[in-house]
Amino acid sequence: MTMDPALAGHLQELRRGTVVVASLTVLRTPGYGYSLLETLASAGFEVEANTLYPLLRRLEAQGLLTSAWNTDEARPRKFYTTTPRGDAVAKALRTEWSRLDAAINDL
């Protein structure tokens, strides 16, 4: 069954913002890109790698994440962690999400 193109576009817009909040929330515990993809997918956030990795770099450039390479294992991995500023932004976004959800439910 084919999805209505208008609906598909709106769903993509809706998910785009929620991935930011979800990523900042999950990365309060350090994690690398692929593990974040798996965690998000298991929670119902289907995100493609070619979307997530640029997002992680953008969030780091904004000072919302920090990163460090872990070279202890055979395959080096770049671990990301939410900064205190990133945690504050995530909290504010979750609060706004709750407010908007309540407003929509009241309509």
Short note summarizing the structure:
The protein has 107 residues and is of the alpha+beta class. The protein is built from 4 helices and 3 strands; from the N terminus they run H-E-H-H-E-E-H.
Unreliable stretches covering 5 or more consecutive residues: none
Helix content: 55-70%
Radius of gyration, whole Å:
16 Å
Sheet with the most strands, sense and barrel status:
3 strands, antiparallel
CATH superfamily of the domain at 34-106: Winged helix-like DNA-binding domain superfamily/Winged helix DNA-binding domain
What is the global morphology?
globular
Determine the N-to-C terminus distance: 31 Å
Q: Strand content of the residues, in percent?
A: 5-15%
Rounded average pLDDT: 93
Looking at CATH, which topology of the domain at 34-106 would you report?
Arc Repressor Mutant, subunit A
Strand segment tally: 3
Based on the coordinates given, report the CATH architecture of the domain at 34-106: Orthogonal Bundle
Spatial order of the strands forming the largest sheet: 1-3-2
CATH class descriptor of the domain at 34-106: Mainly Alpha
Order of helices and strands: HEHHEEH
Number of helices: 4
Q: Which structural class fits the helix and strand makeup?
A: alpha+beta
